[in-house]
Every structure is written in structure tokens, then in C-alpha cells.
């Protein structure tokens, strides 16, 4: 793969190489003015959310603060568990640290890596953004497949450094993040803590590791913000985020460029489009729609101000996992040593979607048929909380370079989700959290 080393300020902008003998590659263009702008944005976020006085910002209940509590780690028995979980069991296997391993995507990626013989170690802080019991159930599932999850925070640099001392990871799948567009209005600090500070914490440890790992991390389709172009391409502008969540994901892409440019870290960003499926997140519409339909509660069906349709590019979890593994398998080695760059390093970003936007009203109709229950629909205007009217992924780059090809339609995927949901929640009688 060709190397990328031009300085960008808008990762969404790139150009394709013109050589007929080399695959098209992402090129992130430099712009001193935009880099300065985003630098001020990052600084402002840090000043606002980290240095306000306790009296003006009492947050004793913030889940991100609770996630920094002291965990029990270290010692011979603990190190033995870590090494056993990270042990490669296939001839050409890789050794992967998966952050956010007890999350929705993290669980599925970890299981898939383990099944093909790769060494996998998980890291998760088990915060309570949504029902922690679901995360614990995923943890139990991972343990049955031989994946050990270290309970800790990605901002704990001592823990991260210890993990890299115990295991020479070849790759990192960074999925730990504060998710959710709407929650950012309630607890903005948690997004800066996890999505910006947490990423920097991880990259700082990775740049000093020997060897440096190749890193694949989750960005988001939300970076496209107010973009009206359909479908969304990696070439499109991403400097007009519609929510704080999107802004932190955009910040992550800018930060990734910096560590690639200065320290030689191999970095691949994946922009996920509305992932759904078994073991999913309860804050996602398909999940709580299912819960509320079964309980006989009304569900909100959003429409735009002019009665337009709200649609999403729903992507089944198995298709996302295939894209994640392909990104890991094609990631080149980092080029730094002792924190210093020795040569050009790989820098990429890809959309992972389904390319088939579906109106949310159609999603509800499918759920009604699968659950055999009529939904109580409450048609309401799309709130001004950072949500966008539609998403639609252009995946041509991922198809060409990763061999990415989604194969699960919404009807099939929701059928699998509903089957899991009814089983996990005992026929819908157990509270979904």
C-alpha cells in the first residue's frame, strides 16, 4: 500500500492517486488555517470541560468520572490471564488489543478475531451510559470464547503501559468511546474525556511501544454533519459537525493525522453507519423501538420540518465486523521508533455502511411484522439535538481496497436481532434497561 504523509486539517478531503499501477489511496490535504481553527476548538473544549471549578460544575454522578475508579490489576496471576488471552493460535495470527471490548461492536470483533486464531485482549471500563448488566453478559460471552477483558480506563496510562509491557501487541482495535448523539447535550464532558483525551492517551502509549502497533479506530458517519451530498464519500467535507459527538469524532481524525505525521503510527479510521444486530446498544432506535412496541408504549417517528422522511443506512453487525477485520489485515506496520518517525506511515479512512438507506417508518413496519404487534406511532418533528435527516454511505473505496461487501438486508438483520432480543429478555418480560 502507498504511504500517506501530507498534512491534512480535514480528513474527509483527499485525492486519489493517478498512477494506473498503484491502488487508489487516500490523500488528506493540508490547510494551515483549518488546522489552526481545529486546534482552537480542541483547546476550547479542554478548557471548558476539564478546568471549570468544582463549584461551577459539580458532576459527582458522571459515569466518566466513575470510570476512573481504581481497578485491581497486576500480579503474576493477572499477567498470566493477559498473556493467555493474547496468545496467537494460528500460523499467521496477529495480537490485538481491543478497547471497548464489552461494547456492541467490540464484542463481535473480539469473538471473530478469536475464532480465527488471533490473540485478543479486551479492555473496558464498564461505565453505565446504558445498562451495565448487558456489558457484563457480553463479557461472560467473551470469556467462554477465551477472551479476557481487563477492567480499566483508556485514560489510565499506567495500565496501558503495563499491558504493552506484558504483551507486544501488533495491532490495536480502538472501539472505546462515548457513543450517542443526544446524550452529548446532557453530559458533554464524557465525550471529551473518552473520545478526545482517551484517544490521545492511547496514542501516547502506542507511539512509545516497541514495536509500535498498527491502529484501527472507530470514527463515525456523524462526522459528515450537515453535509447534504448523498451518498457520503470520504472525499466530502467533514468540518461542519452537527453535534458535539460528531465534533469529538472529527477531532479524533485530526489527532490521528498528527500522530501519524509526527510519530509514524499506522492509522486507519472506520466511519460506521448505524450499526445494529444481536447484543446491540439499548440507546439505538431499533432496540428501544422493539422494547416499547412489546410494552405497548408509543414510539417516536421523526420527520423533517417539511414532513420529509428520516432515513438511515442501517448496517448489520456481521458486515461491520468483516470491514474491521479487513482493515486490521491490510494495516501496514508503524514506522516510528522511540516515539520518532523513521519513514512514511500508512494513514487511511473508510466508510463502512450498507449503501441502502431505509426510512425509519419502514424499520418500524418490519419490527411490527416480526414481533406480531402493531406499534403506536407518534409522528413528531426531528429535534434540534444533532441528529441528521439521513445517512447514506459511499463504500466504493472500502470495496476496492478492503474487499468490503455488505450482504445483510434490513429484514434479515432485524429478524436475527429480534430472535436474540426475545431470547435474552425472556420473551420481552425482562426490563431492557
UniProtKB/TrEMBL annotation:
What residue ranges are annotated as transmembrane?
Answer: 35-51
User: Where does it mainly reside?
Assistant: Golgi
Q: Which domain of life is it from?
A: Eukaryota
Show where the NAD-dependent epimerase/dehydratase domain sits.
96-333
Keyword Membrane present in the record's keywords: the answer is yes
Q: Quickly give the catalysed reaction.
A: UDP-alpha-D-glucuronate = UDP-alpha-D-galacturonate
Compartments where located: Golgi apparatus, Golgi stack membrane
Q: What is its EC number?
A: 5.1.3.6
Q: Name one GO cellular component term.
A: Golgi cisterna membrane
Question: What's an example of a GO molecular-function annotation for this chain?
Answer: UDP-glucuronate 4-epimerase activity
Membrane-topology descriptor: Multi-pass membrane protein
Q: Which InterPro entries match?
A: Epimerase_deHydtase, NAD(P)-bd_dom_sf
| Keywords associated with the record | Carbohydrate metabolism, Golgi apparatus, Isomerase, Membrane, NAD, Transmembrane, Transmembrane helix
Q: Which family, according to UniProt?
A: Belongs to the NAD(P)-dependent epimerase/dehydratase family.
What's the subunit arrangement here? Homodimer.
Instruction: Write the protein's name.
Output: UDP-glucuronate 4-epimerase
Instruction: Name its species.
Output: Hibiscus trionum (Flower of an hour)
Amino acid at each position: 500500500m502507498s504511504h500517506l504523509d501530507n498534512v491534512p486539517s480535514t480528513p474527509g478531503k483527499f485525492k486519489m492517486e493517478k498512477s494506473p499501477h498503484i491502488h487508489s489511496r487516500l490523500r488528506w490535504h493540508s490547510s494551515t488555517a483549518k488546522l489552526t481553527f481545529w486546534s482552537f476548538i480542541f483547546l476550547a473544549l479542554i478548557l471548558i470541560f476539564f478546568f471549570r471549578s468544582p463549584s461551577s460544575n459539580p458532576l459527582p454522578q458522571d459515569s466518566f468520572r466513575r470510570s476512573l475508579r481504581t481497578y485491581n490489576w497486576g500480579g503474576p496471576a493477572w499477567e498470566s490471564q493477559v498473556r493467555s488471552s493474547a496468545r496467537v493460535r494460528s500460523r499467521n495470527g496477529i495480537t490485538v488489543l481491543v478497547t471497548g471490548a464489552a461494547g456492541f461492536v467490540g464484542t463481535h470483533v473480539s469473538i471473530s478475531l478469536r475464532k480465527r486464531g488471533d490473540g485478543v485482549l479486551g479492555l473496558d471500563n464498564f461505565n453505565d451510559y446504558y445498562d451495565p448488566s448487558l456489558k457484563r453478559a457480553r463479557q461472560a460471552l467473551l470469556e467462554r470464547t477465551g477472551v479476557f477483558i481487563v477492567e480499566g480506563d483508556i485514560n489510565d496510562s499506567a495500565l496501558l503501559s503495563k499491558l504493552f509491557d506484558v504483551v507486544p501487541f501488533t495491532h490495536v482495535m480502538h472501539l472505546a468511546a462515548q457513543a450517542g448523539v443526544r446524550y452529548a447535550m446532557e453530559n458533554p464532558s464524557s465525550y471529551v474525556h473518552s473520545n478526545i483525551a482517551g484517544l490521545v492517551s492511547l496514542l501516547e502509549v502506542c507511539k512509545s511501544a516497541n514495536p509500535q502497533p498498527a491502529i484501527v479506530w472507530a470514527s463515525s458517519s456523524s462526522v459528515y454533519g450537515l453535509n447534504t451530498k448523498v451518498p457520503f464519500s470520504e472525499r466530502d467535507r467533514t468540518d461542519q459537525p452537527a453535534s458535539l459527538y460528531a465534533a469529538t469524532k472529527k477531532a479524533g481524525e485530526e489527532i490521528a493525522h498528527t500522530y501519524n505525521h509526527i510519530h509514524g503510527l499506522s492509522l486507519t479510521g472506520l466511519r460506521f453507519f448505524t450499526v445494529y444486530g444481536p447484543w446491540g446498544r439499548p440507546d439505538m432506535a431499533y432496540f428501544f423501538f422493539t422494547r416499547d412496541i412489546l410494552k405497548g408504549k408509543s414510539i417516536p417517528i421523526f420527520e423533517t420540518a417539511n414532513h420529509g422522511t428520516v432515513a438511515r443506512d442501517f448496517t448489520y453487525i456481521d458486515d461491520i465486523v468483516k470491514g474491521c477485520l479487513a482493515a486490521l489485515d491490510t494495516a501496514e506496520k508503524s514506522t516510528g521508533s522511540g516515539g520518532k518517525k523513521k519513514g512514511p506511515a500508512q494513514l487511511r479512512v473508510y466508510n463502512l455502511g450498507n449503501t441502502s438507506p431505509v426510512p425509519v417508518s419502514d424499520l418500524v413496519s418490519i419490527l411490527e411484522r416480526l414481533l406480531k404487534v402493531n406499534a403506536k406511532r407518534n409522528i413528531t418533528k426531528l429535534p434540534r439535538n444533532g441528529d441528521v435527516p439521513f445517512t447514506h454511505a459511499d463504500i466504493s473505496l472500502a470495496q476496492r481496497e478492503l474487499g468490503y461487501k455488505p450482504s445483510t438486508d434490513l429484514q434479515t438483520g432485524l429478524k436475527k436481532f429480534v430472535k436474540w432480543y426475545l431470547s435474552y429478555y425472556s420473551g420481552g418480560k425482562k426490563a431492557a434497561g
